[in-house]
Amino acid sequence: MSKLTTMHDAIARYVHDGDTIAIEGFTACIGFAAAHEIIRQGRRDLVLCRMTPDLVYDQMIAAGCARKLIFSYLGNPGVGPLHAVRRAVEKSIPAPLELEEYSHFGMVARYIAGAYHLPFFPLRSYLGSDLPKVNPRIQFIESPYGDGPVAVVPPLNPDVAIIHAQRADANGNTQLWGLLGAQKEAAFAAQHVIVVVEEVVDEEVIRSDPNRTLIPGLIVDAVVHEPYGAHPSYVQGYYDRDNDFYLRWDEISRDEAATRAWLEEWVYGVGDRAEYVEKMGRETWERLRPAQAWSRPVNYG
Amino acid sequence: MSDYSPSEMMIVAAARALAGVRTVFVGVGLPNIACNLAQRTVAPDLELVYESGVYGARPRRLPLSIGDPALITGALSVCSMADLFGLYLQGGRLEVAFLGGAQIDRYGNLNTTVIGDYARPKVRLPGSGGACEIAIHARQVFIIMRLSRRSFVERLDFLTSPGHLGGAGERERLGMPGRGPQVVVTDKCVFRFDPASGEMGVVSLHPGVRLEDVRAEMGWAPRVSPDLAETEPPTQEELRLLREELDPMGVYRS
End-to-end distance of chain B based on CA atoms, in angstroms? Predict the structure, then answer.
C-alpha cells in the first residue's frame, strides 16, 4: 500500500496543536522542510523534542509554534547560541517557552524507554551533577541486584516523529546512512511516523540491502518525497551541510525583526519546499554537491 | 620572541598529553585539532571517537562540527547514539575524553549549562550534550580551556559534568568508573591533579609565562608543583603539521 503523500497533507493530517513532536537527526538529516510546513500551517503549543534543537527548532520557536522544549544540547553547532530560543526563554518573545533538559544519553534513554514500552530506562549518568536538581524527572533508584544507585529517566513517546532519510519505498521502508543519531528509537517510540526522503525507490532496492533499513514501513504512516528537504543540514551522499547558512542564521536570528523577515521570505513566502529549492538557486546546490565515496557492494546470497 | 602563538602552544601541549593513547573522545575546535596532531606525532594508533556516533574517523579536512560529513567518509564505524553512549562509553571502551566548559573549579568540575541562576540565567549556555556521562565514564578526562578569571572560578554557577567533585575519593565513593580529570591544558600553563586532594596544580608554565600571570587569571590561589617546569616549546615539525596540514587557514592560530 502506498503511503506517498505531500508534505502539506502529511502535516495537516498528523500534526495537531498541542502535540509532542520529535524531528530527530543529529547534525545530519534534519527535517527542515517538515518544520517549515508546520510553521506555514500555524501549529501552536507544540512540545518539541530533539537532542540538539538546532536551527530547526530555533525557527519554529521564533514562529511561535512551541510551548515547551525537551532537549540535551542547546546551540547552533560550532557557531554559538540559539538566539530565538533565548528570546523565548528570557523575554517570552514571541511566547513563553518551558525547558526540560537532559544529557544526550538521557534523551536517547528516554526514546529507548518509549520504544521498548518500559516505565523507565536506567543509565549510569547524572551522579554528582546538578541536572537532577533542576529536572525532577531524572531520578535515582537502588539496583535490585545490590550494586548501588542508578539513574533512571521516563519514556518519551512523541505523538509524531519526523525522520528525514536518503531513500524509502512507497510503503515507508526507510534506508538511512551516515549519522544515525536517535532516529530509530524516536520513530519506534512515536504514535505516528512521517518519513521524508530524497528519493523514493522500488521495494526491490530496499530488499537488495536489508541491513541498511533503519525504519520499517510497519511503523510508518506517511512518506513524503522532498529533495533537499533537510537543507541547511546535510544528507550524506546527497548534499553537504550549508555551513554558510548556519553562520548567517547567527546574524539573522540575533534580531527579532530580521528573524521575522527571514521567516516571511523563506517560509511563509514560499508555497512548499520545491519553491524554496528553486528560490535558493542552482549555485547553492552546486556549492553543496558532495564528493563521491561509494561503498563496495556486499553479497547477500 | 617565540615564533608560535599561545594557542599553538596549547594545542601542542594537549596533543603530547595523548602519547600512547588508543581511543579518544573528541570535541570540536581545539580538542579536535590536538587529537589530529597527536595522531600524526605521539599517538599513531589513536582512534578518534565522536559523540555523533563515529568511531575511527580520518577526516580529510578539519570538521566544523562533531556531526560534520567529513568525519563519516572513511571512518571505521558509524553507529547510533544509543550504541555510542551505551556500548562504547558506558561499556568502558574509551580511554581519554576531551572536555571544556564556560567554568571550571579547582576539582575539575565543569559548567556548560548557565551563568547565574538556573531559573533566571545571566547567560544560557548549551547544556550537557554528552559531557555529563562522558565525565563519569571515560577512563581519563583531559581538559582544554583558555585561562581566564571568568572561567577558572572558586565556585561554579552550575555543576554540569563531575570532576573530582568535593575532593579526592568522592568519585570512587559514588562508584564512578572513570578516574576523572587528569590534566588541564591552557594557553599559559598545564595543570595536573594532585592525587591526595583531587585539586589541580600548576606543573608547567609555557615559555615566557610567569607564575603571577597564571595567578592573575584565576579565581583561587592554585597549588604549584614542587617540580614546576617550563613546557617544552613546539618543535618545527609540530608547527609545520599544524600550519600546513591541519589548520592551513589559521583558524586556531590566534
Answer: 16
Other C-beta atoms closer than 10 Å to the C-beta of A251 total: 10
Asked if A124 and B90 come within 8 Å (Cβ–Cβ), the reply is yes
- Residue B2 confidence (pLDDT): 65
Determine how β-strand A222-225 pairs with β-strand A192-200. parallel
Lay out the sheet containing A149-153: strands in order across.
A121-123, A149-153, A139-142
A166 — contact with chain B (CB < 8 Å)?
A: no
The pTM (predicted TM-score) of the whole model is: 0.97
Contacts of A253 (CB under 8 A, 6+ apart): A58, A62, A82, A83, A84, A259
Whether B51 is a known active-site residue: answer yes
pLDDT along chain B (254 residues), means of 10: 87 96 89 92 96 92 86 97 98 96 97 95 93 98 97 98 97 96 98 97 98 98 97 97 90 82
Q: CB of B193 within 8 A of CB of B164? A: yes
Angle formed by the axes of helices A32-40 and A273-280, nearest 10°: 120
Residue B27, pLDDT score: 80
Return the bridge partners of B113, or none.
Answer: none
Helix, strand, coil percentages (3-state) for chain B, rounded to 5, are 25, 20, 55
Instruction: Output the pLDDT for position B1.
Output: 44
Rounded Cα distance between A230 and B135, Å, is: 32
Grid coordinates representing B60? 580529510
Taking the Cβ of residue A130 and every Cβ of chain B, the question of whether any pair is shorter than 8 Å is answered with: yes
Q: Which residues of chain A have pLDDT under 70?
A: none
Q: Which of B89, B130, B175 sits opposite A148 (nearest CB)?
A: B175
Chain mean position to CA A152? 24
